[in-house]
Records
---
Amino acid sequence: FDLDLKEKNLEKSWRVDPLISPHHLPLAIKTYLSKRIALVAHPLVSPFKGELKGLPPMFIHAGNQEILKNDIIKFAQKAQQSQVKIELVIGNEMVHVHPILFPKDVRSQK
């Protein structure tokens, strides 16, 4: 997730994600970073900003109805362009962190 909140489709995505709204994201980021808000663009905080080449294979699970879906897809594409082996699974009719919320749902099991 790109913590600078430059994703243009947050409002559209929020309409289908009942867990996270664009209005909650700044507070969540501030809470996550605590007093280190200046690090918002640091690659260890916002992996999208970092160099991905040489990373081990990745498995990314996302929901097609989550507010972060577009950033997740862009991150997966960046990893793939950096020759990182990646498997991206987007769960149908699923929201943010659906494998944790609904672990028994067949769509969460990959």
---
Amino acid sequence: YDMAASFQQGLTANAGTTEATIYTAPVGTHLLIGVIATNIYGSTLGVTVKLVRSATEYYIAYDKRIDANKTEDLLMGTKLSLTNGDLIKVSSTADNAFTVIATVTQDVLT
């Protein structure tokens, strides 16, 4: 049984003080290949992006300060392996502060 890899995106247009889940990994092996955050707030703010696996939190970015109207690559060229039930969550220090896009290659053959 051969399954082709596919690209999926987790998106949030208005990340804020209420934590939002932007991606939930299905069954299989997947690669988080990109996370970009754009500050749409108007002043420098912090953004937090984390991987939650079996109730344990692993921070990709913790209160990462990004200037107004700037975009940052939060993975800095690295890749993260994801498995069934892994969550990517986003929050910020103010409401409606960031657009965050996570790109995942799903069903990576191992």
